[in-house]
């Protein structure tokens, strides 16, 4: 029997298979693309939510520590520094979260962004509350506690934008009596650094720095026949009080100073005149009138009248209009010192303090 010819049709099985595979591939590509986009958006939202929760935990942590700070005033300084650092980190992380929010498509994630922005506003309010609490806690950068946790009332004027401490580091700071000075001066450097009178002077500087306003600047000079900054190389600039590590470094450097030689007030007062800008408050820690001026004296012994002349010459070198607060350490054999330094303090609108041997 003759075989019949098969008719050709455009809707044959093979053609339908090809069309089905094509439509399936298109649908699969669409699903993959949409799933990837949704996954990316969801991942970004999870990251932002995690960061916000982390910020919230840090704010709660800061509040707990502020409560502890109110109950323990003696540790106010340390906790204040922690709270300030926490506030700065919160601000940085807030700005980072804001940047991440800006990168998200506002048309598709508008509700999530609004919710995150509300949380950010709450965090900013919490940060402001932390800063206000910090101000209430006080602004002492360092802590100094005297013997027996005593609090001291003095007439010293410790304010100002630029505070200069001048610390006498001459040999007379080794003792209250001349015979003690001569005996300790011939001992080792370690023994001279540990002399009782010198340690009182160092503790006085430490107490003063603990009272500085936090937003002020300072400089510490030690002087004898010359002068130098507590931190070498900083003679020509002012240091920030809120840099606590640098202030601690300055105090550590003072611990290494060895009292020696005579005293030249005129030389250090000339250095004060060269500072730019000038200090607006000077605190002078010394124990007597100067023993030389800008030049080394020919004789080793300087009379009381000569020391008065050297003091007058030094005062003339001091810039006008700057209060000089004098802390006069005890020293036998210099009867004119107290009256002359008292007059200097009064004429410059400063203050005068002759502390006891257990101060500060």
From TrEMBL:
Transmembrane segments: 12-33
Gene3D superfamilies: von Willebrand factor, type A domain
Domain VWFA: 200-293, 308-335
Stated name of the protein: von Willebrand factor type A domain-containing protein
Pfam families: VWA_3 (PF13768)
Origin: domain of life: Bacteria
Keyword Transmembrane: yes
Lineage: Bacteria, Pseudomonadati, Pseudomonadota, Gammaproteobacteria, Cellvibrionales
Alphabetical list of InterPro entries matching this protein: VWF_A, vWFA_dom_sf
Keywords: Coiled coil, Membrane, Transmembrane, Transmembrane helix
